[in-house]
Amino acid sequence: xxxxxxxxxxxxxxxxxxxxxxxxxxxxxxxxxxxxxxxxxxxxxxxxxxxxxxxxxxxxxxxxxxxxxxxxxxxxxxxxxxxxx
Length: 85
What we know:
By secondary structure, this protein is an alpha+beta fold. The chain has a single domain, classed as 2-Layer Sandwich (Conserved Hypothetical Protein Mth637, Chain: A), CATH 3.30.1200. 16% of the residues lie in helices and 34% in strands. It has a five-stranded mixed β-sheet with strand order 2-3-1-5-4, with helices on one face. A hairpin with a 2-residue loop joins strand 2 and strand 3. The chain is globular and about 30 Å long. It starts with a strand and ends in a 14-residue tail after the last strand.
């Protein structure tokens, strides 16, 4: 799944806000220096979508506030074992 985000650095609170389907604003307290903000954005999105950080990747916009993010979300299948007897 791909989403579009606008990252806001040096915010007063860490927050993920959904604007529309596939479009988010991610506010982070950290600054944009040394990729700190990108790391925090990835962590917040991983928590929001309940996936691991390794499943979230910046596809485009690594050095810009507007980014395209790939989120690899695996669907878990429920195994229904029926009893016969």
